[in-house]
Amino acid sequence: MRKNCLVWFRKDLRLHDNLALNEAAKFENIYPVFIMDDDIYENKYLGKASLWWLESSLQALNIRINNKLNLFKGDSIDIIFRLCSKLDIQGVYWNRCYEADRIKKDTTLKKKLLENNVEAKSFNSSLLWEPWDIKNKSGNAYKVFTPFFKSGCLSAKSPRSPKKFIYNENFQKVELDLPRYKTKFINKKNHWSNKFKMHWNVGEISAKNSLKKFINDGAKNYSLGRNFPALPNVSRLSPHLHWGEISPFEVWNEAKSNMTGDNKDVFLSELGWREFSYHLLYNFPNLQTKNLKTNFNDFPWIEDLAIITKWKNGETGYPIIDAGMRELWETGYMHNRVRMITASFLVKNLLANWQHGQKWFWDCLLDADAASNSASWQWVAGTGTDSTPFFRIFNPISQSKKFDNDADYIRKFLPELQNLPNKYIFSPFDIDESILKQYGVILGGNYPYPIVDYSISRKRALNTYTNFINRN
User: Fold this and answer.
1) 201 CB contacts (<8 Å, ≥6 apart)?
2) From CA 439, how far away is CA 421, in angstroms rounded?
3) Which end of the chain has less Cβ packing within 10 Å, N or C?
4) How far apart are CA 214 and CA 203, in angstroms?
Protein backbone atom coordinates (compact mmCIF):
# COMPACT_ATOMS: atom_id res chain seq x y z
CA MET A 1 0.00 0.00 0.00
CA ARG A 2 1.28 3.44 -0.92
CA LYS A 3 1.79 5.79 1.99
CA ASN A 4 0.42 9.38 1.64
CA CYS A 5 -2.29 10.97 -0.49
CA LEU A 6 -4.38 14.10 -0.45
CA VAL A 7 -8.13 14.35 -1.07
CA TRP A 8 -9.30 17.80 -2.10
CA PHE A 9 -12.95 18.28 -1.08
CA ARG A 10 -15.02 20.90 -2.89
CA LYS A 11 -18.69 20.36 -3.74
CA ASP A 12 -18.59 16.69 -2.70
CA LEU A 13 -18.94 16.88 1.08
CA ARG A 14 -19.79 13.23 1.73
CA LEU A 15 -18.22 9.82 2.22
CA HIS A 16 -20.64 7.61 0.30
CA ASP A 17 -20.31 7.48 -3.50
CA ASN A 18 -17.30 9.77 -3.50
CA LEU A 19 -14.99 8.46 -6.22
CA ALA A 20 -12.03 10.63 -5.25
CA LEU A 21 -12.25 9.35 -1.68
CA ASN A 22 -12.51 5.76 -2.85
CA GLU A 23 -9.29 6.20 -4.82
CA ALA A 24 -7.62 7.70 -1.77
CA ALA A 25 -8.64 4.71 0.35
CA LYS A 26 -5.90 2.72 -1.40
CA PHE A 27 -3.30 4.70 0.59
CA GLU A 28 -2.07 4.23 4.12
CA ASN A 29 -2.64 7.88 5.08
CA ILE A 30 -5.32 10.23 3.74
CA TYR A 31 -4.96 13.99 4.20
CA PRO A 32 -8.46 15.45 3.64
CA VAL A 33 -8.42 19.16 2.80
CA PHE A 34 -10.85 21.89 1.88
CA ILE A 35 -9.44 25.15 0.53
CA MET A 36 -11.38 28.40 0.62
CA ASP A 37 -9.89 29.60 -2.63
CA ASP A 38 -9.50 33.38 -2.60
CA ASP A 39 -10.41 33.90 -6.24
CA ILE A 40 -13.38 31.54 -6.28
CA TYR A 41 -15.44 30.97 -3.16
CA GLU A 42 -15.39 34.24 -1.29
CA ASN A 43 -16.01 36.37 -4.35
CA LYS A 44 -17.81 34.87 -7.32
CA TYR A 45 -19.23 31.59 -6.17
CA LEU A 46 -20.78 32.14 -2.76
CA GLY A 47 -23.71 34.13 -1.54
CA LYS A 48 -24.07 34.67 2.18
CA ALA A 49 -26.74 32.01 2.65
CA SER A 50 -24.85 29.31 0.77
CA LEU A 51 -21.68 30.17 2.69
CA TRP A 52 -23.57 29.38 5.89
CA TRP A 53 -24.58 26.02 4.42
CA LEU A 54 -21.03 25.31 3.27
CA GLU A 55 -19.55 26.01 6.68
CA SER A 56 -22.22 23.90 8.38
CA SER A 57 -21.60 21.07 5.93
CA LEU A 58 -17.84 21.22 6.46
CA GLN A 59 -18.49 20.98 10.19
CA ALA A 60 -20.68 17.90 9.66
CA LEU A 61 -18.08 16.27 7.41
CA ASN A 62 -15.34 16.99 9.91
CA ILE A 63 -17.29 15.19 12.61
CA ARG A 64 -17.76 12.17 10.31
CA ILE A 65 -14.01 11.84 9.79
CA ASN A 66 -13.07 12.20 13.45
CA ASN A 67 -12.20 15.92 13.30
CA LYS A 68 -9.44 15.37 10.74
CA LEU A 69 -10.67 17.75 8.04
CA ASN A 70 -8.06 20.41 7.24
CA LEU A 71 -9.45 23.83 6.28
CA PHE A 72 -7.14 26.19 4.42
CA LYS A 73 -7.47 29.62 2.84
CA GLY A 74 -5.58 30.93 -0.16
CA ASP A 75 -4.65 29.85 -3.65
CA SER A 76 -5.55 26.18 -4.03
CA ILE A 77 -2.69 25.30 -6.38
CA ASP A 78 -0.12 26.92 -4.10
CA ILE A 79 -1.47 25.23 -0.98
CA ILE A 80 -1.72 21.81 -2.60
CA PHE A 81 1.88 22.02 -3.83
CA ARG A 82 3.11 23.09 -0.39
CA LEU A 83 1.28 20.14 1.14
CA CYS A 84 2.72 17.73 -1.42
CA SER A 85 6.24 18.95 -0.73
CA LYS A 86 6.04 18.89 3.06
CA LEU A 87 4.04 15.65 3.46
CA ASP A 88 5.62 13.52 0.73
CA ILE A 89 2.27 13.22 -1.07
CA GLN A 90 2.19 10.60 -3.83
CA GLY A 91 -1.32 11.16 -5.12
CA VAL A 92 -3.88 14.00 -5.21
CA TYR A 93 -7.52 13.22 -5.95
CA TRP A 94 -10.60 15.38 -6.39
CA ASN A 95 -14.04 15.44 -7.97
CA ARG A 96 -14.68 17.72 -10.90
CA CYS A 97 -16.46 21.07 -10.99
CA TYR A 98 -17.76 22.49 -14.25
CA GLU A 99 -17.46 26.27 -14.06
CA ALA A 100 -15.03 27.52 -16.71
CA ASP A 101 -12.47 29.02 -14.34
CA ARG A 102 -12.47 25.92 -12.14
CA ILE A 103 -11.88 23.73 -15.18
CA LYS A 104 -8.96 25.96 -16.15
CA LYS A 105 -7.48 25.79 -12.67
CA ASP A 106 -7.95 22.02 -12.42
CA THR A 107 -6.18 21.55 -15.75
CA THR A 108 -3.23 23.64 -14.56
CA LEU A 109 -3.08 21.77 -11.26
CA LYS A 110 -3.15 18.34 -12.87
CA LYS A 111 -0.42 19.26 -15.36
CA LYS A 112 1.88 20.59 -12.63
CA LEU A 113 1.34 17.62 -10.35
CA LEU A 114 2.13 15.11 -13.09
CA GLU A 115 5.25 17.08 -14.02
CA ASN A 116 6.36 16.68 -10.39
CA ASN A 117 5.70 12.93 -10.38
CA VAL A 118 2.60 13.18 -8.21
CA GLU A 119 -0.36 11.13 -9.39
CA ALA A 120 -3.33 13.40 -10.14
CA LYS A 121 -6.82 12.13 -10.89
CA SER A 122 -10.20 13.82 -11.05
CA PHE A 123 -13.58 12.11 -11.07
CA ASN A 124 -17.22 12.78 -11.84
CA SER A 125 -19.27 12.54 -8.67
CA SER A 126 -21.75 15.37 -9.22
CA LEU A 127 -23.41 14.88 -12.64
CA LEU A 128 -25.25 11.88 -14.05
CA TRP A 129 -23.76 12.56 -17.46
CA GLU A 130 -20.61 14.46 -18.31
CA PRO A 131 -21.65 17.61 -20.22
CA TRP A 132 -19.23 16.88 -23.06
CA ASP A 133 -20.72 13.42 -23.61
CA ILE A 134 -24.24 14.61 -24.48
CA LYS A 135 -24.38 16.04 -28.01
CA ASN A 136 -27.04 16.39 -30.67
CA LYS A 137 -26.93 14.66 -34.04
CA SER A 138 -24.74 17.43 -35.40
CA GLY A 139 -22.22 16.90 -32.62
CA ASN A 140 -23.07 20.19 -30.94
CA ALA A 141 -24.54 21.18 -27.58
CA TYR A 142 -28.28 20.89 -27.08
CA LYS A 143 -30.13 24.17 -26.62
CA VAL A 144 -33.59 22.79 -25.80
CA PHE A 145 -34.33 20.68 -22.73
CA THR A 146 -36.73 18.06 -24.09
CA PRO A 147 -34.45 16.68 -26.84
CA PHE A 148 -31.46 17.06 -24.49
CA PHE A 149 -33.09 14.83 -21.91
CA LYS A 150 -35.02 12.38 -24.07
CA SER A 151 -32.72 12.01 -27.08
CA GLY A 152 -29.47 12.86 -25.34
CA CYS A 153 -29.51 11.66 -21.75
CA LEU A 154 -32.04 8.83 -21.79
CA SER A 155 -30.51 7.41 -24.97
CA ALA A 156 -27.01 7.52 -23.48
CA LYS A 157 -25.49 5.09 -21.04
CA SER A 158 -27.61 4.82 -17.89
CA PRO A 159 -26.23 6.55 -14.78
CA ARG A 160 -23.97 4.24 -12.81
CA SER A 161 -24.92 2.72 -9.47
CA PRO A 162 -23.64 4.48 -6.34
CA LYS A 163 -20.27 3.27 -5.07
CA LYS A 164 -19.88 2.38 -1.41
CA PHE A 165 -17.13 4.09 0.55
CA ILE A 166 -14.15 1.80 0.92
CA TYR A 167 -13.63 2.69 4.54
CA ASN A 168 -10.19 3.82 5.58
CA GLU A 169 -10.12 5.62 8.91
CA ASN A 170 -6.53 6.78 8.57
CA PHE A 171 -7.44 10.40 8.01
CA GLN A 172 -4.64 12.69 9.07
CA LYS A 173 -4.44 16.23 10.43
CA VAL A 174 -1.94 18.64 8.88
CA GLU A 175 0.27 20.29 11.46
CA LEU A 176 2.05 22.62 9.03
CA ASP A 177 2.01 26.41 9.33
CA LEU A 178 -0.33 27.25 6.47
CA PRO A 179 -3.09 29.89 6.27
CA ARG A 180 -6.22 28.41 7.81
CA TYR A 181 -9.82 29.24 6.99
CA LYS A 182 -11.80 30.61 9.92
CA THR A 183 -15.56 30.17 9.68
CA LYS A 184 -17.75 33.27 9.64
CA PHE A 185 -21.19 31.97 10.55
CA ILE A 186 -20.81 28.82 12.64
CA ASN A 187 -21.69 29.26 16.32
CA LYS A 188 -22.28 32.99 15.95
CA LYS A 189 -24.79 34.22 18.52
CA ASN A 190 -27.63 36.54 17.52
CA HIS A 191 -26.64 36.32 13.86
CA TRP A 192 -29.05 36.48 10.90
CA SER A 193 -27.92 33.04 9.72
CA ASN A 194 -29.15 31.38 12.91
CA LYS A 195 -32.69 31.42 11.49
CA PHE A 196 -31.70 28.72 9.00
CA LYS A 197 -31.11 26.26 11.83
CA MET A 198 -34.84 26.23 12.51
CA HIS A 199 -35.58 24.99 9.00
CA TRP A 200 -32.66 22.81 7.92
CA ASN A 201 -30.42 19.99 9.04
CA VAL A 202 -27.11 20.00 7.17
CA GLY A 203 -24.74 17.18 6.25
CA GLU A 204 -24.62 13.79 4.59
CA ILE A 205 -26.73 11.99 7.19
CA SER A 206 -29.45 14.65 6.95
CA ALA A 207 -29.36 14.45 3.16
CA LYS A 208 -29.94 10.71 3.27
CA ASN A 209 -32.79 11.19 5.75
CA SER A 210 -34.38 13.82 3.49
CA LEU A 211 -34.23 11.48 0.51
CA LYS A 212 -35.72 8.63 2.53
CA LYS A 213 -38.53 10.84 3.83
CA PHE A 214 -39.31 12.08 0.33
CA ILE A 215 -39.38 8.58 -1.16
CA ASN A 216 -41.64 7.31 1.63
CA ASP A 217 -44.03 10.28 1.70
CA GLY A 218 -43.84 13.18 -0.75
CA ALA A 219 -42.94 11.10 -3.80
CA LYS A 220 -46.33 9.37 -3.79
CA ASN A 221 -48.06 12.46 -5.19
CA TYR A 222 -45.05 14.24 -6.66
CA SER A 223 -46.22 14.91 -10.22
CA LEU A 224 -49.26 16.86 -9.00
CA GLY A 225 -48.36 17.91 -5.46
CA ARG A 226 -45.03 19.50 -6.41
CA ASN A 227 -46.95 22.50 -7.78
CA PHE A 228 -48.61 23.34 -4.45
CA PRO A 229 -46.25 25.25 -2.14
CA ALA A 230 -48.17 24.34 1.03
CA LEU A 231 -47.94 20.59 0.36
CA PRO A 232 -44.97 18.41 1.42
CA ASN A 233 -44.42 16.90 -2.02
CA VAL A 234 -41.05 18.35 -2.99
CA SER A 235 -37.79 16.68 -2.01
CA ARG A 236 -35.95 19.79 -0.69
CA LEU A 237 -32.75 18.04 -1.74
CA SER A 238 -31.36 20.93 -3.80
CA PRO A 239 -28.90 22.36 -1.22
CA HIS A 240 -27.77 18.84 -0.31
CA LEU A 241 -27.14 18.09 -3.98
CA HIS A 242 -25.39 21.39 -4.57
CA TRP A 243 -22.79 20.79 -1.88
CA GLY A 244 -22.52 17.10 -2.69
CA GLU A 245 -23.84 15.85 0.63
CA ILE A 246 -25.68 13.29 -1.41
CA SER A 247 -24.81 11.89 -4.81
CA PRO A 248 -27.15 12.45 -7.80
CA PHE A 249 -26.51 8.81 -8.64
CA GLU A 250 -28.00 7.76 -5.31
CA VAL A 251 -31.02 10.04 -5.80
CA TRP A 252 -31.53 8.79 -9.37
CA ASN A 253 -31.30 5.14 -8.42
CA GLU A 254 -33.55 5.49 -5.39
CA ALA A 255 -36.19 7.22 -7.52
CA LYS A 256 -35.89 4.64 -10.30
CA SER A 257 -36.29 1.81 -7.79
CA ASN A 258 -39.02 3.21 -5.55
CA MET A 259 -41.15 5.62 -7.59
CA THR A 260 -43.67 4.67 -10.26
CA GLY A 261 -45.64 6.15 -13.15
CA ASP A 262 -45.86 9.90 -13.67
CA ASN A 263 -44.36 10.58 -10.25
CA LYS A 264 -41.15 8.85 -11.25
CA ASP A 265 -41.00 10.29 -14.76
CA VAL A 266 -41.54 13.86 -13.60
CA PHE A 267 -39.02 13.60 -10.76
CA LEU A 268 -36.35 12.13 -13.03
CA SER A 269 -36.98 14.91 -15.53
CA GLU A 270 -36.41 17.45 -12.74
CA LEU A 271 -33.02 15.85 -12.14
CA GLY A 272 -32.62 16.18 -15.89
CA TRP A 273 -33.14 19.96 -15.64
CA ARG A 274 -30.20 20.09 -13.24
CA GLU A 275 -28.11 18.24 -15.81
CA PHE A 276 -29.31 20.57 -18.57
CA SER A 277 -28.27 23.63 -16.57
CA TYR A 278 -24.75 22.29 -16.25
CA HIS A 279 -24.76 21.30 -19.92
CA LEU A 280 -25.50 24.95 -20.72
CA LEU A 281 -22.93 26.29 -18.27
CA TYR A 282 -20.21 24.06 -19.67
CA ASN A 283 -20.98 24.86 -23.30
CA PHE A 284 -21.85 28.52 -22.73
CA PRO A 285 -19.46 29.66 -19.96
CA ASN A 286 -20.93 33.19 -19.88
CA LEU A 287 -24.32 31.89 -18.76
CA GLN A 288 -24.02 33.70 -15.42
CA THR A 289 -23.18 37.12 -16.76
CA LYS A 290 -24.46 37.53 -20.34
CA ASN A 291 -27.65 36.98 -22.30
CA LEU A 292 -27.36 33.79 -24.31
CA LYS A 293 -29.56 35.48 -26.90
CA THR A 294 -27.23 38.39 -27.54
CA ASN A 295 -29.91 40.54 -29.17
CA PHE A 296 -31.32 41.01 -25.64
CA ASN A 297 -28.27 43.11 -24.83
CA ASP A 298 -30.30 46.05 -26.16
CA PHE A 299 -33.57 45.17 -24.44
CA PRO A 300 -35.15 48.24 -22.77
CA TRP A 301 -35.20 47.03 -19.18
CA ILE A 302 -36.49 49.51 -16.59
CA GLU A 303 -33.91 50.27 -13.89
CA ASP A 304 -36.15 51.33 -11.00
CA LEU A 305 -34.12 50.29 -7.95
CA ALA A 306 -36.78 51.43 -5.49
CA ILE A 307 -39.34 49.10 -7.05
CA ILE A 308 -36.81 46.25 -7.25
CA THR A 309 -36.07 46.71 -3.54
CA LYS A 310 -39.77 46.34 -2.73
CA TRP A 311 -39.77 43.07 -4.70
CA LYS A 312 -36.74 41.84 -2.74
CA ASN A 313 -38.37 42.73 0.58
CA GLY A 314 -41.72 41.09 -0.21
CA GLU A 315 -43.55 44.42 -0.34
CA THR A 316 -45.21 44.23 -3.76
CA GLY A 317 -48.82 44.13 -2.56
CA TYR A 318 -49.37 40.76 -4.27
CA PRO A 319 -49.63 38.15 -1.49
CA ILE A 320 -48.20 35.15 -3.36
CA ILE A 321 -45.20 37.22 -4.47
CA ASP A 322 -44.62 38.64 -1.01
CA ALA A 323 -45.02 35.24 0.65
CA GLY A 324 -42.41 33.77 -1.68
CA MET A 325 -39.89 36.55 -1.12
CA ARG A 326 -40.32 36.30 2.63
CA GLU A 327 -39.96 32.52 2.53
CA LEU A 328 -36.68 33.10 0.72
CA TRP A 329 -35.40 35.56 3.31
CA GLU A 330 -36.53 33.56 6.34
CA THR A 331 -35.61 30.03 5.22
CA GLY A 332 -33.03 30.37 2.44
CA TYR A 333 -35.39 28.50 0.13
CA MET A 334 -38.37 29.12 -2.11
CA HIS A 335 -40.80 26.60 -3.55
CA ASN A 336 -40.18 26.10 -7.26
CA ARG A 337 -43.68 27.09 -8.38
CA VAL A 338 -43.33 30.33 -6.42
CA ARG A 339 -39.84 30.90 -7.85
CA MET A 340 -41.40 30.98 -11.31
CA ILE A 341 -44.17 33.34 -10.23
CA THR A 342 -41.85 35.79 -8.45
CA ALA A 343 -39.30 35.70 -11.27
CA SER A 344 -41.95 36.32 -13.91
CA PHE A 345 -43.26 39.26 -11.91
CA LEU A 346 -39.81 40.85 -11.74
CA VAL A 347 -38.79 40.53 -15.38
CA LYS A 348 -42.22 40.82 -17.02
CA ASN A 349 -44.45 42.96 -14.80
CA LEU A 350 -41.64 45.18 -13.51
CA LEU A 351 -39.52 44.86 -16.69
CA ALA A 352 -36.40 44.60 -14.51
CA ASN A 353 -33.25 42.99 -15.86
CA TRP A 354 -33.12 39.31 -14.88
CA GLN A 355 -29.65 39.83 -13.39
CA HIS A 356 -31.18 41.76 -10.48
CA GLY A 357 -33.17 38.65 -9.55
CA GLN A 358 -30.28 36.32 -10.21
CA LYS A 359 -28.01 38.25 -7.85
CA TRP A 360 -30.63 38.45 -5.09
CA PHE A 361 -31.40 34.74 -5.28
CA TRP A 362 -27.67 34.04 -5.39
CA ASP A 363 -27.18 35.79 -2.06
CA CYS A 364 -30.31 34.44 -0.35
CA LEU A 365 -30.67 30.85 -1.57
CA LEU A 366 -29.04 28.03 0.34
CA ASP A 367 -29.08 26.04 -2.90
CA ALA A 368 -27.60 28.90 -4.98
CA ASP A 369 -26.02 27.18 -7.94
CA ALA A 370 -24.07 28.79 -10.78
CA ALA A 371 -25.75 26.65 -13.42
CA SER A 372 -29.34 26.29 -12.20
CA ASN A 373 -29.76 29.84 -10.92
CA SER A 374 -28.54 31.48 -14.12
CA ALA A 375 -30.26 29.07 -16.52
CA SER A 376 -33.57 29.46 -14.70
CA TRP A 377 -33.50 33.24 -14.71
CA GLN A 378 -32.59 33.34 -18.39
CA TRP A 379 -35.42 30.88 -19.05
CA VAL A 380 -37.98 33.19 -17.41
CA ALA A 381 -36.59 36.33 -19.04
CA GLY A 382 -36.57 34.81 -22.52
CA THR A 383 -32.85 35.49 -22.92
CA GLY A 384 -31.70 31.87 -22.72
CA THR A 385 -31.53 28.98 -25.14
CA ASP A 386 -34.67 27.14 -24.08
CA SER A 387 -36.82 30.02 -22.88
CA THR A 388 -40.38 30.55 -21.82
CA PRO A 389 -42.36 32.38 -24.55
CA PHE A 390 -42.39 36.15 -24.04
CA PHE A 391 -46.17 36.13 -23.82
CA ARG A 392 -46.18 33.68 -20.89
CA ILE A 393 -46.65 35.98 -17.92
CA PHE A 394 -47.64 34.36 -14.64
CA ASN A 395 -50.71 35.99 -13.12
CA PRO A 396 -49.97 36.12 -9.36
CA ILE A 397 -53.67 36.19 -8.46
CA SER A 398 -54.83 33.24 -10.56
CA GLN A 399 -51.66 31.30 -9.73
CA SER A 400 -52.26 31.69 -6.00
CA LYS A 401 -55.92 30.70 -6.33
CA LYS A 402 -54.96 27.62 -8.31
CA PHE A 403 -51.96 26.41 -6.34
CA ASP A 404 -52.63 27.83 -2.85
CA ASN A 405 -56.41 27.76 -2.89
CA ASP A 406 -56.71 27.56 0.91
CA ALA A 407 -54.05 30.28 1.26
CA ASP A 408 -52.06 28.14 3.72
CA TYR A 409 -48.78 29.19 2.15
CA ILE A 410 -49.70 32.87 2.06
CA ARG A 411 -50.82 32.88 5.70
CA LYS A 412 -47.66 31.10 6.81
CA PHE A 413 -45.38 33.83 5.53
CA LEU A 414 -47.75 36.82 5.70
CA PRO A 415 -49.21 36.69 9.21
CA GLU A 416 -50.62 40.20 8.78
CA LEU A 417 -53.14 38.67 6.34
CA GLN A 418 -53.93 35.56 8.34
CA ASN A 419 -57.43 36.71 9.35
CA LEU A 420 -58.56 37.51 5.85
CA PRO A 421 -61.09 35.06 4.38
CA ASN A 422 -60.01 33.20 1.27
CA LYS A 423 -62.32 35.28 -0.91
CA TYR A 424 -60.30 38.39 -0.01
CA ILE A 425 -56.76 37.20 0.62
CA PHE A 426 -55.47 36.66 -2.92
CA SER A 427 -55.99 40.29 -4.00
CA PRO A 428 -56.74 42.46 -0.95
CA PHE A 429 -56.33 45.61 -3.06
CA ASP A 430 -59.61 44.73 -4.82
CA ILE A 431 -61.53 44.85 -1.51
CA ASP A 432 -63.11 47.88 0.12
CA GLU A 433 -60.68 49.16 2.74
CA SER A 434 -63.40 49.31 5.39
CA ILE A 435 -63.88 45.56 4.99
CA LEU A 436 -60.13 44.94 5.21
CA LYS A 437 -59.94 46.90 8.47
CA GLN A 438 -62.42 44.48 10.01
CA TYR A 439 -59.76 41.79 9.58
CA GLY A 440 -56.86 43.91 10.77
CA VAL A 441 -55.48 44.78 7.34
CA ILE A 442 -54.63 48.36 6.46
CA LEU A 443 -53.37 48.96 2.94
CA GLY A 444 -50.44 51.33 3.06
CA GLY A 445 -50.14 50.47 6.76
CA ASN A 446 -49.38 46.89 7.74
CA TYR A 447 -49.65 45.69 4.14
CA PRO A 448 -48.60 47.63 1.02
CA TYR A 449 -50.62 48.83 -1.92
CA PRO A 450 -49.63 47.08 -5.18
CA ILE A 451 -46.47 48.53 -6.68
CA VAL A 452 -47.91 48.02 -10.19
CA ASP A 453 -51.33 47.28 -11.67
CA TYR A 454 -51.08 43.71 -12.95
CA SER A 455 -53.23 44.23 -16.06
CA ILE A 456 -51.47 47.42 -17.09
CA SER A 457 -48.01 45.97 -16.44
CA ARG A 458 -48.88 42.85 -18.42
CA LYS A 459 -49.92 44.91 -21.44
CA ARG A 460 -46.74 46.96 -21.09
CA ALA A 461 -44.62 43.81 -21.06
CA LEU A 462 -46.36 42.33 -24.09
CA ASN A 463 -45.99 45.57 -26.03
CA THR A 464 -42.34 45.95 -25.03
CA TYR A 465 -41.43 42.38 -25.96
CA THR A 466 -43.46 42.49 -29.20
CA ASN A 467 -41.89 45.74 -30.35
CA PHE A 468 -38.44 44.49 -29.43
CA ILE A 469 -38.87 41.20 -31.28
CA ASN A 470 -40.25 42.96 -34.36
CA ARG A 471 -37.22 45.28 -34.43
CA ASN A 472 -34.84 42.36 -34.14
Assistant:
1) 209, 210
2) 9
3) N
4) 17
